[in-house]
Specification:
It contains five helices and eleven strands.
Length: 237
């Protein structure tokens, strides 16, 4: 799938998972977790039958019972590897393309990544914030970043810290008075019951990285958070 920066309505949704690196979920569990997120996307025209084993648009990833045997086999555990993964895509490039990837790591962050290009309904902040909250119901999260790839690559303020982009989730309660630059703040719990905050930079439409006002709003939030020690370094996650 092409990077989201190829479209003005494409973005990456990155979640850093809080987990015990000594307990790696087996392939069937990883595939089931991806299936739970895929079900959240059914409201946006991405039905379960539209997902395929990554790299092969002829092999369905899900059926009426859940992950297919072929999908679980594609994610088979490799005891020699420090990374265990599962990934699917919808077989498209460019407009309408979407992909999901889940990686559990023994020595580094584990994470979930969702990329989408011009998916109907995902240009409204409420729907994307709902997706963030839905993902928190699947994985205990240290961080969620939602932004066009170009923002994360070159427009955020601190290269060694997360970028706010369109929105960010941090696993701590942050009141709106502490981030007056934010357009919206929503408090949400993850699957472990930890309370955190979704901070949104733009609510009047899709976050456009070519719009300098949108970029400035996200940058200003990052500076405000960093000044209050609320925006962690990546090495602190």
């Amino acid at each position: 799938m092409e990077h989201a920066e190829k479209s003005s309505c494409g973005f990456e949704f990155r979640l850093v998972i809080r987990h015990d690196p000594l307990r790696m979920p087996p392939a069937a569990q990883r595939c089931e977790e991806l299936g739970r997120f895929a079900r959240l996307l059914e409201n946006f025209g991405l039905g379960m039958s539209q997902w395929f084993v990554s790299g092969d648009s002829t092999v369905p990833a899900f059926d009426s019972k859940g992950p297919t045997v072929a999908f679980i086999q594609s994610a088979a555990d490799d005891p020699e590897s420090p990374i265990q993964f599962a990934d699917v895509w919808n077989g498209l490039e460019g407009k309408g393309a979407a992909g999901l990837m889940l990686k559990y790591r023994k020595r580094r962050w584990s994470g979930f990544d969702f990329r989408a290009v011009e998916i109907s309904g995902l240009d409204f902040y409420e729907n994307v914030a709902d997706l963030v909250e839905g993902a928190l119901g699947i994985w205990p999260a240290l961080l969620v970043e939602v932004a066009p790839y170009a923002y994360s690559a070159s427009e955020k303020v601190f290269p060694d810290r997360p970028g706010v982009g369109w929105m960010i989730y941090l696993p701590k309660r942050i009141e709106s008075s502490r981030v007056p630059e934010a357009s919206m703040i929503r408090h949400a719990k993850d699957v472990s019951g930890n309370l955190g905050t979704i901070i949104v930079s733009e609510i009047d439409g899709y976050f456009d990285v070519s719009n300098r006002a949108h970029v400035k709003a996200a940058n200003d939030i990052e500076i405000r958070l960093a000044d209050q020690d609320l925006l962690p370094l990546y090495v602190e996650l």
